[in-house]
Amino acid sequence: MGYCTQLNEKYGSNIYVLFRVLVGLLFMQHGGQKLFGWFGGLGGSAAPLFSLMGLAGVIEFFGGLALVLGLFTRLVATITAVEMLVAFFKVHFPQSWIPLLNQGELALLFFAAFLVLIIYGSGKWSLEQALLKKETF
Fold this sequence. Notes:
Blueprint: H1 3-36, H2 52-69, H3 73-92, H4 99-102, H5 105-120, H6 127-132
């Protein structure tokens, strides 16, 4: 058995929880920028709630929070993955097809992270496991 396999068996589930929480916290920051004007987002002001940016903010903030808590992880990851594809093709792709040039690399990285979350679900230390004793979706 290789060293990496041993590490995965011993720490893999803990590292996955760290991954889920970090992705959720980072995604929440983007939602906070749009919803509350945090971190200098949108010139320090909030996006109108009933706008495309407002909808994105709601999905990002509350979706990120759900991921941090491990609540409905697969469903939330599916919704947020779709949002990232829409963001990439609606906002970034028209500027250029190269993600580094169109500043869409973060949308694609989040998309990839959400695919991992869809496959692996909430993992341990999640509200979903604690409250429902199973994963949904």
